[in-house]
Amino acid sequence: MTSTGSNPLLVRIEGKWVNLEAWKKIHPGGDQSLERFRNKDATDAFISLHSKEAWSMFNKMKSVKEPQGFTEEPLRPSTIAFREWRSQLVSEGWFERNWFWDGFYVGIITILAIVGTLISYDYPLLAIVLLGVSMQQAGWIGHDYVHGRGTISYFLGRFVGGLWNAFSSEWWSAKHNKHHVHTNQVGIDDDIANDPILHLHIPSEDKEFILRPYQHIYYHLAYSFLYLSWRLQSFQHALANKEKMELALMAINYTWLFGFLPIKVALGSILLGGWLVAEIVTATHQSEDMIDGASFHFCEDQFATTRDVHMDSSFLNWLWGGMQFQLIHHLFPTMPKYRYRAMVDRVRKFALENGIEYRHSGMIEIFKMNYNTMKKYAAVKH
Fold first, then answer.
1. Which residue of 20, 232, 291, 340 shows the fewest CB atoms closer than 10 Å?
2. Residues 6+ apart with CB under 8 A from 344
3. What does the alpha-carbon distance between residue 226 and residue 1 come to, in Å, rounded to a whole number?
């Protein structure tokens, strides 16, 4: 997608049109994320993901005339209500971090990593479990910080993600933010595009995968390679973009894995950590609505494509790392994960007042739904 001076990239945010033609070249989320909102209202996407600093930059931008031929689409009542609700939550402090809880979660993964390393030669299986869970939990924490706003969150997100899992937060952030804005939107959301290994649609005959009829059997095994895939893509991105800090953290991570641990423990931990993450994050999305192409109704789209998981077990709630409240996270991605549980009743109330379905299930039920989804697209023929 290119643009000339006579066709600038115009976007509207809170009623103000701005020209992002020059800015798109250095936009942290890439130019494609901006191009999708060409001549459209990007208010909810901008509010959901951007910091106070980004707002300050936006406020300094010169207002421009709306593009020719623009047709105003009346805001849906749910969109108006959602914007007012989010503004209220901001004023109540729901998006502020509590550094006690941040320290608590980081402390747990540090202890698991240290103990796992110390016992790796004497008790390799137990070490794999401890280190794999540490990597999984580091994924949740790094995810939370990368979504968080402010200088401290920025550096902690890159530190935790790079040191524990050798992830490039820059690569992951651009990919993941697209998923947040365009959840389950076919052709845009990379998180539902796992072809040719796993299918959530019926592929064309020329792109058919011979093992698709068996994907409901092998998808658990495929999930275990998630962290290996992310590590490879992270390294490629960091190297291509000369991300020195990320490359340094990756070097430390690989020195730890293959310098202090037996190879079977290092690889086993990566596979276990990736499997735990994949089982959880896929279950809350891929059995929900799939949207054909781009949609720009942020609030209603999140309710239609995402499901929460309600569990009574304190251990399981910790293991899921806040992702059991996936819908709440998608509505408010910059909100710290330890605030989600307290938001459940308010989300339920908002949904009821606005005639929207709040989807939630138990853990066993949602895993069954995920299995049935994989089996459905394994069985359907052309």
1. 232
2. 308, 310, 325, 328
3. 30
Please give the Cα distance from 334 to 349 (Å, whole number): 21
Q: Chain-wide mean pLDDT for the chain? A: 91
Distance CA 170, CA 153 (A): 13
Q: Is the pLDDT of residue 256 over 80?
A: yes
Q: What is the DSSP string of 290-309?
A: -EES----HHHHHHHH--EE
Half-sphere exposure (Cβ direction) of 260: Cα atoms closer than 13 Å: 15
Read off the pTM. 0.91
DSSP 225: T
Measure the CA–CA gap between 245 and 228, rounded to whole angstroms.
20
**pLDDT tier at 23 (50, 70, 90 boundaries)?**
confident
Q: What is the pLDDT of residue 1?
A: 40
Tell me: the pLDDT tens digits for 304-341? 999 999 999 999 999 999 999 999 999 999 999 999 99
**Average pLDDT value for residue range 111-115:** 98
Q: Which two tokens stand for residue 377?
A: 């697209």
More confident site: 343 or 173? 343
Largest CA distance in the chain: 71
Two tokens, residue 137? 């939990």
Helix-then-strand count for the chain, H and E: 17, 7
Q: How far apart are CA 256 and CA 235, in angstroms?
A: 16
How far is Cα 201 from Cα 185, in angstroms, rounded to an integer? 12
The pair phi, psi for residue 339, each rounded to 5°, is: -100, -5
Type of residue at 247: L
Instruction: Report the pLDDT value the prediction gives residue 262, as an integer from 0 to 100.
Output: 97
Write the DSSP symbol of residue 224.
T
As a whole number of angstroms, the distance between CA 237 and CA 332 comes to 27
The first and second tokens of residue 10, run together, are 């115009």
Domains and CATH numbers, the chain: 10-73 (3.10.120.10), 99-379 (no CATH)
117, 261 in Cβ contact below 8 A? yes
Q: Is-contact 132 278, C-beta < 8 A?
A: no
d(CA 115, CA 133) in angstroms, rounded, equals 12
> Alpha-carbon distance 324 to 364, whole Å?
12
- The pLDDT score that the predictor gives to residue 5 is 56
Tell me how far apart the alpha carbons of residues 263 and 279 are, in angstroms, rounded to a whole number: 24
